[in-house]
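Suppose a colleague, Dr. K., hands you the sequence of a protein chain of 216 amino acids and asks what its three-dimensional shape might be. Before reaching for any lab equipment, you can write down a predicted structure in token form. Begin with the sequence itself:
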Amino acid sequence: MRDDFANATKEHLAARVGFRCSNPGCRQATRGPQSDPAGTVNIGVAAHITAASPDGPRYDSSLTPDERRAADNGIWLCQNDGKLVDNDPVRYTVDLLRSWKAAAEKAAARELEHRLNRTPTLAGVLERMERLMPALLAEMRSDLADEPLKREIVLLKRIWAYWGDGNELVYYYEEHDSLDSKFRILENERLVRDITATNVKRYLMSEQLAEYLSAQ
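The predicted structure, expressed as tokens, is then:
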């Protein structure tokens, strides 16, 4: 027996994120016009954060059927990402999907507030960063959750010997492609500041970036 969402719940989930995929690395529009002037095309899906049935991904037996089919247990995704998160529940955890949902709702609200602004907003810049470097921002977000006061960043290779003072966030070239390029982009957008003093790349994270990552 599946605890599926009602149609009204699906519509609610879609509207809360502006009918865009909630994956911050995607943000694909999921609804638009059909060739028939009277029709529309929908490529979105209301996915369960915890599964609708016991054999599904991330199933939580502690939830009641009503809780399982409630909007709080749903996230709006494009069909590709809906399939992706259900095929890899170890990677796409409940906490990660809830963070996607919260971030997508905030992004939709910002789009409404800045609808007349023709210059790039901080929200628009951050959304572009999510598309360009989702894995790096996800790791930074996780690190700040554990160490909310750290702002200095060091870029290292694992074979390098480095003695810091313990107040740095460390990111490794082996774990992120084009790491220098990504930090140059962040620097160009004034989200980090280069404070390199030796051969080891060092940056200072802006409070705007720290606040954004900590709120997700």
